[in-house]
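Hey, resending since the last one bounced:
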Amino acid sequence: MKRLFDIVFSAIAVLVFAIPILGLTWQVRRKLGCPAFFYQMRPGLHGKPFKMIKFRTMTDARGQDGELLSDAARLTPFGHFLRSTSLDELPELWNVLKGDMSLVGPRPLLMEYLPLYSPEQSRRHDVRPGITGWAQVNGRNALTWDEKFELDVWYASHRSLWLDIRILWLTVRKVLAREGISAPGEATMAAFTGAEKTTK
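The structure tokens again:
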């Protein structure tokens, strides 16, 4: 039932947002350059890698040493707007249609985090990753890593269609309020360095 809900709802969303997605593609190319989309390998169900697609929100600005500048330095006002409104996530509807992701589930993080999880934290991969999730409607990037993982694991244990519908509704409210966009002092979220180093 969850997969059917994902297919139907994401297909409708693609049709509804087709023109806005085209408009945003043009704006991203104009303001941030090409390509308009950002592709990255992320862990999916059971940790299996998949290629996630988002609108790019950062420039490719580099320092004198040729290295990319920090996220904060490369995140433009337009990119911040895309993130704060979650519009950068719209292309992930394609990942949902393909079956890589679900509308609701733990957010797909970085591949290099996989060996850093505790056995309990790894349970977040018992379900497909989502465009939004229980952690996103309960603090998003303002949460500590421990808090975020605890909420992800709780969702994996209590998932249901009705919970998904509730999370989607709460997501709309959170996006409109633009809450929890970034962690204090960070452009987005500090890097995860391992279960033993997280603090509550």
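Residues 161-177 form the longest helix (17 residues).

Sorry for the duplicate.
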